[in-house]
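Collaborator request, handled under Task 6.
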Amino acid sequence: MKRLFLCGISLFLAIGAWAIKPDREYICYPYQSGLIYEPLEVVTADGYKIETWFYPAQNLSDSVQPSDAPLPFKTIDSTPRPTLIICNGDAANMSYYQMTLAACYAANGYNIVTFDWRGFGASAPFEMDTDYLCYTEMLLDYDAVIASVARLPYVDFDNIFLLGWSTGAYLSMIAAQRNEVRGCILRGCITSFDDAIPVIKHDKGNEDLNLVVPANFPLEALPLAAAPRFGRDVMLIVGENDTRTPPWMSQKIYDALPDNIYKELWIVPDARHSAKDAPEFMALPQFLARTISFMEASAGRDTSLSAE
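Structure tokens returned to the collaborator:
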């Protein structure tokens, strides 16, 4: 793998939530950190506009210069590139540490896409009950983003990867089952709601905490249930001291995955679930190096893609 580039963009912390906590206000835009990007037109099958930012692979030094206005969009060359779609968790929006990750991956030759669920950021309004763990409609948001990205001429549509943490992790694994992507990187992933809800209540210290699962959610597509028949490459990442999605959850998923896919499990020493103790903060250089190595290994495999 080529030399890893780390970009000197401030790390904005997003505190993890226990259930849906939409944030409509952006704290920063990419051009304010000197990043080239363009918004994509993305509309879901049920008519919701999803705010989506596309960062092309770009030549960045270790310190990028801020701008007062969007920079002209350009790609390094005409070669379609592997592309990583980074989804949000259950709180904040894509103006937080997604932007730092986008800069680092873009500096290493990857196109990056970030987006906000309906009801988050500048995506279309959507009424949400904050007792809900997620909404099934978020999968339609993910589907629409993947479909729009795959049509872009500067995207290698055979090498699209998904990255999500916490709520975004299990939604990424479900989205990978529904779409033609190469693989997914799942940080802090649950096995099932049956496993996760008691753990979350214990972690919060509130056994009466009301956590709602949508009635129409595809439970059979949750990570542990889907793992034996999963046909995408998978990297599982979890903090050693994560008490919300403990390492045993990622281990169970890893063990249940078939042997004919490329799979990795990385338990990050001393890391926890969110904010400054999350793996991507505590071990950012290693996080980038290992996830890029995973994508390179996956892209190099002689396999064909087909939706499950």
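The cover message to the collaborator said: "Residues 21-299 form a domain with the Rossmann fold fold (CATH 3.40.50.1820). The chain has eight helices and ten strands. Please let us know whether this matches your experimental observations."
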